[in-house]
Amino acid sequence: MISSVFICVGGSADLAITTNGSSQESSSLVVCFGEMLIDFVPTVGGVSLAEAPAFKKAPGGAPANVAVGIARLGGSSAFVGKVGEDEFGYMLADILKQNKVDNSGMRFDHNARTALAFVTLRSDGEREFLFFRNPSADMLLHESELDVNLIKQAKIFHYGSISLIEEPCRSTHLAAMAVAKRSGSILSYDPNLRLPLWPSADAAREGIMSIWDHADVIKISEDEISFLTGGDDPYDDSVVLKKLFHPNLKLLLVSEGSEGCRYYTKHYKGRVPGVKVKAVDTTGAGDAFVGGILSILASDIDIYQDEKRLREALLFANACGALTVTERGAIPAMPTKDAVLQLLEKVDVS
């Protein structure tokens, strides 16, 4: 059995996983940059979008999910992005506020609407997406609208690749990364491939890889390894190390769903098994995993240098992902620190 004591990985008083949000120091702030939107999900499972009898709205967008995941664990997080000056945009800003995420970096567009996505998991297991972004407000964030002072405070600056697809957001994304890097932030990248949003597969591959070498921490999935390497075996360590591990990278994580995750650093590599649960909805599991590891990394920034501490942190992150799939929706299902520790008490790691 595993004791909850292991989460005190850094011995520091401001650890995101060992303190309450009220005592969280700004030095462990994680700023998440990118899209926040409304997901419309069928009220019944296993149907195509055309077959769905009705839809339920839910907040979405990977960077926003990660920000909420960190705050739910007692960490300090902020979201930077743009929504429409409409009812959905105000709703999303309010959801972040309710979840104790700093939303002061959000901007509201007078002319463009908040992005919408219709998402379903068909009976054949394939996900089906239909996006309404022509253009949506998140694509129209300008560099002049960035909250530079907020970004400068980030211990970790986290982002995806959707914000790289169109101008002016692409240039804004690059500018925000530059501000964070100059300020000493750790750059964290989860490409979160959404192929239908890109002009072509080649454009997606080129866009995602265009900022690859800037990141200190990268999280990818098995499918993304295959896509980015042109079809190579995602389970082959030599493929990952040769084609995706760059000289400046501190930590490369490969999420394997219910099977857990793999990790690669300059000095060692390994695998941490998943935490078994009964899955209801896998939406947001990867974002919960990212939130879990970043919440620890923000207060124990050199954790990748100690394999034992890193493995403990990744088991915690796996448990975050596992708990998220036991409930419907991403943000509503993000777990608390107590819930994660209770689950880990039942895990045998011997």
Automatic annotation (TrEMBL):
Residues in Carbohydrate kinase PfkB domain copies: 29-336
Cleaved signal peptide residues: none
CDD domains on file: bac_FRK
This enzyme's EC code(s): 2.7.1.4
Pathway assignment: Glycan biosynthesis; starch biosynthesis
Catalytic reaction(s) noted: D-fructose + ATP = D-fructose 6-phosphate + ADP + H(+)
Enzyme type, top EC level: transferase
Chain's role: May play an important role in maintaining the flux of carbon towards starch formation.
Protein name: fructokinase
Provenance organism: Escallonia herrerae
